[in-house]
């Protein structure tokens, strides 16, 4: 920009007021003067790139006029350095501090090699008296420099106003986005809860369907058997014997099916005219019962009585099935009720081991091939939201089952630290474990190792888990279990 | 003539009791055996094979300790001895993936959900056994009294016995 020269401006011109404020012309004129003036020559000072001309906060005795090159301006804020921009030929550095004696306002650094005139107060006055013409230009430039600064300041005010408005707008936008994110997050969380619920419901369906099936069918057969039994028992000399077989059925223990097959084969020879289904019943009986049946085994005429005793046994057996199934269902429903108990707004003092046991009951269908090693030591009550902690146990146990493909060992333990102010709970499995790289992000909301669209769950189970635990002022961490697998350690403070 | 067995696999003894009881009326022709696990069933299948008998139908629970029911059915489908065995899943809960696998890889014939009705289960078992005997037996007449008569008569006609 030095090279583009305006026409007819090589000489000092008093006519043109504009030229008084023209930096380029000023620089040209100064350069011209330098060739003739020893004073000006002595004032020439060159800075190499990166050299500091003026340092913020220091006192200033020098006014620099840039002749060649550019300098940068920096202002130190509280915790930020603002880049104010570059100054080129014809600009002044240190004008304010030079005139007012205040500390230097901004730091000026050479951006490239910079040629300047460096005035101190003495030679500045000297310059004025010696070169009144160019001093007028200098005055004009100083004035226009100040005017420009003032204009800049006004512009900055406007800019600040504009930015404030934009900031406000962006702030509103952000607020909206955050709200939306919160909504999405809540939607995910409730979806995850639904997914857990789905898993639980499916499991419970199975858990309850089995005893329900047994119950329904047993009731059917028992009602058939009983009416027959009542009818035929009249023909039997002694009802004690019937009663004996009925009671035996009622308290039977389930036999090993392979063993039973062996017995069936040998009994088929003894009770040759019995139907195979009856022989199956006989094969279940203990030696005492079989001994009692023997008198009726050989003769075909006694077959009705034989069948009667077997039916009595079977009736007891069905009644036993009904009893077992009913108590199973009752137990499940009880666990479920307690498990899903909606905790109120405030936490309650609870033995968290109950929640762990109930969760294991509810998840029974996932644990058929999993050996559960439970080591729950005495622990003090904890002030907590029971329902939410149950979701934590559920998530961690389901995760462990997933990792082990539903067969392996699950280790659950709890205890108190020696200072007696923390309760810890460990849930571990002997599955493949979690690689260190993944451990770091395992509690992030979107992390999952389950493939999309496959199983239940969205992969925010562990994020929720962590959230619930933090709500209880607790912590959760994951490590490798000794002997392989993953181990989750949770720590809860004991409230006084 | 070798026997055609029905196998029931179910880990809950009370349920196994009632399943077997539901099928008892077929036992005159088709001996019924129960197994408490997939492993137990494997041993049973071997015994039946060694005795020179066959397995017409398996009624299998899915969720059991050890191998799952579907695993056992897939295995049976791969084994020549049990390939033609009619395969029925009797379960309260099998995931979609497991069921798909059972249909695709084990050629599952039927899926019965718990709790079931005796009449339904019996009808399904009878129909499947009917298909089994039509497929494997030359003389279908003995089964007329116990299996699906209509189907058997039609098969007998088309085989040209009558």
Automatic annotation (TrEMBL), chain A:
Coiled coil: 153-191
UniProt entry tagged with the keyword Signal: no
Catalytic activity: ATP + protein L-histidine = ADP + protein N-phospho-L-histidine
InterPro entries per record: cNMP-bd_dom (IPR000595), cNMP-bd_dom_sf (IPR018490), HATPase_C_sf (IPR036890), HATPase_dom (IPR003594), His_kinase_dom (IPR005467), RmlC-like_jellyroll (IPR014710), Sig_transdc_His_kin-like_C (IPR004358)
Cross-referenced Pfam families: cNMP_binding, HATPase_c
The EC number(s) this enzyme carries: 2.7.13.3
SUPFAM superfamilies (UniProt xref): ATPase domain of HSP90 chaperone/DNA topoisomerase II/histidine kinase (SSF55874), cAMP-binding domain-like (SSF51206)
Annotated SMART domains: cNMP, HATPase_c
Occurrences of domain Histidine kinase (ranges): 270-496
UniProt KW keywords: Coiled coil
Domain of life: Bacteria
Gene3D superfamilies in the record: 1.10.287.130, Histidine kinase-like ATPase, C-terminal domain, Jelly Rolls
Signal sequence interval, chain numbering: none
Domain Cyclic nucleotide-binding span(s) in chain numbering: 45-124
PROSITE patterns reported in the protein's UniProt record: CNMP_BINDING_3, HIS_KIN
GO MF annotation: an example: protein histidine kinase activity
Protein name per the record: histidine kinase
Lineage: Bacteria, Pseudomonadati, Bacteroidota, Bacteroidia, Marinilabiliales
From TrEMBL, chain B:
GO BP term (any one): phosphorelay signal transduction system
Highest taxon of source: Bacteria
Keywords: Phosphoprotein
Presence of the UniProt keyword Phosphoprotein in the record: yes
Positions bearing 4-aspartylphosphate: 61
Database matches in InterPro entries: Bact_response_regulator, CheY-like_superfamily, Sig_transdc_resp-reg_receiver
Keyword Phosphoprotein: yes
Domain Response regulatory: 5-129
Protein name per Swiss-Prot or TrEMBL: Response regulator receiver domain-containing protein
Lineage: Bacteria, Pseudomonadati, Bacteroidota, Bacteroidia, Marinilabiliales
């Amino acid at each position: 920009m030095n090279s583009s020269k305006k026409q007819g401006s090589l000489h000092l011109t008093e006519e043109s007021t504009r030229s008084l404020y023209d930096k380029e012309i000023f620089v040209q004129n100064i350069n011209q003067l330098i060739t003739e003036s020893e004073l000006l020559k002595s004032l020439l000072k060159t800075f190499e790139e990166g050299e500091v001309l003026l340092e913020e906060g220091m006192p200033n005795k020098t006014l620099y006029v840039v002749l060649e090159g550019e300098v940068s301006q920096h202002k130190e804020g509280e915790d930020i350095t603002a880049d104010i921009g570059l100054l080129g030929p014809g600009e002044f550095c240190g004008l304010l501090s030079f005139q007012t004696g205040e500390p230097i306002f901004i730091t000026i650094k050479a951006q490239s090699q910079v040629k300047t005139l460096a005035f101190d107060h003495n030679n500045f006055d000297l310059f004025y008296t010696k070169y009144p013409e160019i001093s007028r230009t200098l005055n004009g430039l100083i004035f226009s420099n100040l005017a420009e600064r003032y204009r800049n300041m006004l512009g900055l005010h406007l800019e600040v106003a504009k930015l404030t408005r934009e900031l406000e707008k962006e702030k509103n936008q952000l607020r909206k986005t955050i709200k939306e994110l919160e909504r999405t997050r809540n939607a995910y969380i409730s979806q995850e809860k639904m997914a857990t619920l789905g898993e639980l419901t499916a499991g419970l369906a199975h858990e309850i369907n089995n005893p329900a099936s047994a119950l329904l069918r047993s009731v059917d057969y028992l009602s058939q058997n009983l009416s027959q039994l009542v009818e035929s028992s009249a023909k039997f000399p002694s009802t004690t014997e019937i009663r004996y077989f009925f009671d035996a059925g009622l308290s039977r223990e389930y036999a090993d099916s392979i063993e039973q097959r062996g017995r069936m084969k040998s009994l088929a020879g003894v009770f040759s005219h019995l139907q195979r289904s009856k022989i199956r019943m006989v094969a279940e009986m203990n030696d005492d019962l079989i001994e009692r049946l023997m008198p009726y085994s050989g003769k075909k005429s006694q077959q009705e009585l034989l069948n009667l005793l077997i039916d009595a046994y079977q009736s007891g057996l069905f009644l036993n099935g009904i009893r077992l199934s009913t108590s199973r269902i009752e137990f499940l429903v009880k666990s479920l009720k307690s498990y899903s108990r909606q905790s109120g707004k405030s936490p309650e003092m609870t033995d968290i081991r109950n929640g762990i046991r109930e969760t294991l009951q509810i998840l029974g269908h996932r644990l058929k091939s999993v050996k559960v090693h439970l080591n729950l030591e005495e622990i003090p009550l904890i002030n907590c939201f029971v329902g939410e902690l149950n979701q934590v146990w559920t998530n961690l146990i389901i995760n462990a089952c997933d990792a082990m493909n539903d067969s392996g060992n699950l280790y659950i333990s709890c205890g108190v630290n020696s200072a007696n102010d923390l309760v810890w709970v460990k849930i571990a499995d002997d599955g493949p474990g979690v690689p260190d790289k993944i451990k770091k992000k395992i509690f992030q909301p979107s992390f999952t190792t389950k493939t999309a669209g496959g199983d239940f769950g969205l992969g925010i189970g562990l994020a929720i888990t962590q959230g619930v635990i933090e709500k209880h002022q607790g912590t959760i961490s994951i490590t490798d279990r000794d002997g392989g697998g993953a181990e989750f350690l949770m720590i809860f403070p004991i409230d006084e | 003539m070798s026997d055609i067995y029905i196998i029931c696999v179910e880990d809950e003894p009370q349920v196994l009791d009632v399943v077997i009881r539901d099928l008892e009326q077929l036992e005159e022709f088709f001996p019924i055996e129960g197994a408490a696990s997939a492993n137990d069933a494997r041993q049973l299948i071997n015994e039946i094979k060694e005795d020179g008998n066959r397995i017409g139908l398996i009624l299998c629970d899915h969720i059991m300790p050890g191998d799952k029911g579907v695993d056992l059915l897939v295995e049976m489908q791969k084994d020549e001895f049990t390939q033609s065995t009619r395969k029925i899943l009797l379960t309260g809960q099998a995931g979609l993936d497991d069921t798909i696998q059972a249909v695709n890889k084990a050629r599952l014939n039927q899926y019965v959900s718990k709790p079931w009705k005796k009449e339904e289960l019996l009808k399904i078992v009878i129909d499947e056994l009917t298909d089994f005997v039509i497929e494997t037996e030359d003389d279908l007449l003995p089964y007329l009294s116990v299996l699906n008569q209509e189907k058997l008569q039609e098969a007998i006609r088309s085989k040209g016995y009558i």
